[in-house]
Amino acid sequence: MLRHKTALRFVAPAAVLTLTLSACGGGGDNADADAKKSSKPKARASQAKAASGGELATGESATGKVEEEDGTVTYEITAQKVDLGTEAEAAKLVQDKAEAKGLVLAVAHVKYTHKAGPALTSDSDAGDGTTIWADGTRGALLIGASDDAPGCEDPYDVESWKSGETHTFCESYLVPANAKSVEVHWSEEDGEPYIWKFPSK
Predict the structure, then answer these.
(1) From CA 31, how far away is CA 173, in angstroms rounded?
(2) At 62, is the secondary structure helix, strand, or coil?
(3) DSSP letter string, 72-129
(4) Using CA atoms, how far apart are residues 41 and 83, in angstroms rounded to an integer?
């Protein structure tokens, strides 16, 4: 379900946010995963190779493997919703307001359930495979914009994750305000993405 929020609140100052506007020109899902990893303070392991992908219905789950620091973990992944903000809110999140002209903030809420593999003793890389697309074009990644959004957990705060436990991580992107549909993609490294589509109106 796509929800328009009139007042999305974020504590991260604009100076901390990383806007990768070059992502708006297209490219693959892995470019944003690389950008997310480069913002982390420590080296991260790569994700395992995907076996499949494809379009999923709202509420439908995908299963994928991620190579975590503690070993390979199998996750059940579900894109639950995308919250859309306003152009005015998007302009407050970047240093140069002109870069956000015609764009709105899209926050994807993605649920991850640890299904198999070792318990994690440090933060997870499960969210690194998530990107947001609008009308077939990848949005511009905003790092840190959704860490404190309602219903979102900060992945850096999850340092112990056992089989059967579920966490919801959020990803923030800028997408065109006039987009007809918004897609949440999740993929394993070098794999085809699983795709959940949400109408923008």
Answers:
(1) 13
(2) strand
(3) EEEEEEEEEEEEE--HHHHHHTSSSGGGGTTEEEEEEEEEEEEEESPPBSS---GGGG
(4) 28
